Amino acid sequence: MSRMPKVSREFSAYFACSAAALGVDYATYWTVARNTAASLEWAAVIGYGVGMVVAYALLIRFVFPQGWLRSRRKLEATLFALTGLLGLLLTYVSVALVVSLLGEHLHTAKIVAAGVSFTGVFVVRKLVVFRSEALNHNAP
């Protein structure tokens, strides 16, 4: 039986960790949206922020423990947070777009935002924040 390529294993593990973080994100989003005066856009931002903390903890433990910044966790966490800002922006814009096109559809807005944010942020984190040590040594 052939072994799954490293990128596929990482993507699968990243997906699983992100799914767990999304559960926390979504629960926070739903709670804020239903129990406060916050708009859906801001409820999504709050949920995303809470989920981002959970995601970082899971990703450095289970997916990218040997990233090029493993000995410099503060820098790694800072870059992770900066890529999270990209995710927040993608989340906010996606929810705002769904709300403007379809109205306040709580679940549709979050599902669209999660897909857009997940894809964009995975690519940036894989290529920048958690790139492999070998890639770092081969850089000019």
From TrEMBL:
Pfam families reported for this sequence: GtrA_DPMS_TM
Bilayer topology annotation: Multi-pass membrane protein
Keywords for this protein: Membrane, Transmembrane, Transmembrane helix
Domain GtrA/DPMS transmembrane: 14-130
InterPro entries for the chain: GtrA_CellWall_Glycosyl, GtrA_DPMS_TM
Transmembrane segments: 12-30, 42-64, 76-102, 108-128
GO biological process, one term: polysaccharide biosynthetic process
Predominant localisation class: membrane
Keyword check for Membrane: yes
GO cellular-component term (any): plasma membrane
Highest taxon of source: Bacteria
Locations listed in the record: Membrane
Family: Belongs to the GtrA family.
Protein name: GtrA/DPMS transmembrane domain-containing protein
